Amino acid sequence: MKNNLEVYNQIGNFWWNLNNPLHQFNPVRFGYFNDIIGNLRSLKVLDVGCGGGLLSEEFAKKGAEVTGIDISEDSINVAKNHALESNLSIDYKVCSAESIIMNDNMFDVVVCADCLEHVDNLEKVIKEISRVLKISGKFCYLTMNRTIISRVTNWIVESYLKGRFKFSKMSGSNSDIHDWRKFIKPEELYQLMHKYEMKNIETKGVVFAGVRKGGVKLRIGENTKIAYIGYGEKY
User: Fold this and answer.
1) pLDDT digits (tens, 9 = 90+) for 204-234
2) Exposure letters 198-208 (e unless 16+ CB within 10 A, then b)
3) Is the whole model's pTM more than 0.85, yes or no?
4) What is the CATH number of domain 5-234?
């Protein structure tokens, strides 16, 4: 089953809908990244797979010089419009993660959250991230683990989302948001990071923390069986 990114061309302003699970989890994931980076003012940050700009805007609010890239032109347009409404200066570009149109050693921080599990060539993405990252720069990631429990959890979540938000009404027969076979075991990510001169520093789990109106609560924990968040540094 091939991963279908067409869904991201259809959700439009749902990126900023309060019921969007990514929107609900955004303060938690940004809080983690902010804690490990520290003062963001004037740092050059690249948000790879930025979608509608949820994380990009949080970094910009802290004074970072933010560039956001995504392969979905519709998502980039949503991000641009919302940044204008929020009076934030963010450089958004339509660009593939496998071929980042940026100079070498350009960014202090590269963030890739909820994107690695979508790409066609993970090694190319990690190579490109390392290329544009400065020495001692931080690579911040959030992705899905390839386990049986993540497969079951993903099926439940996607069934809920497609039923509630009608994501299944897309061109083509495949309406899945994720392809479980593209999920990444942590050790696989570490090996690629090491190959391209990045050392993993920390990995935490993303775990269930209760229910809320419109979805579930998530928090940072120790169990990495479903999803994990962390960072490394370029050496």
Assistant:
1) 999 988 876 666 789 999 999 999 999 999 9
2) bebeebbbbbe
3) yes
4) 3.40.50.150
CA distance 206 to 201: 17
Distance of alpha carbon 79 from the chain centroid: 14
pLDDT tens digit string along 62-115?
A: 999 999 999 999 999 999 999 999 999 999 999 999 999 999 999 999 999 999
Q: What is the DSSP string of 87-129?
A: T---EEEE--TTS--S-TT-EEEEEEES-GGG-S-HHHHHHHH
DSSP string, 123-142: HHHHHHHHHHEEEEEEEEEE
Token representation of residue 28: 């938690």
Q: Max alpha carbon distance in the chain (Å)? A: 46
Find tokens 């958004």 and name the residue: 92
Structural domain boundaries of the chain?
Answer: 5-234
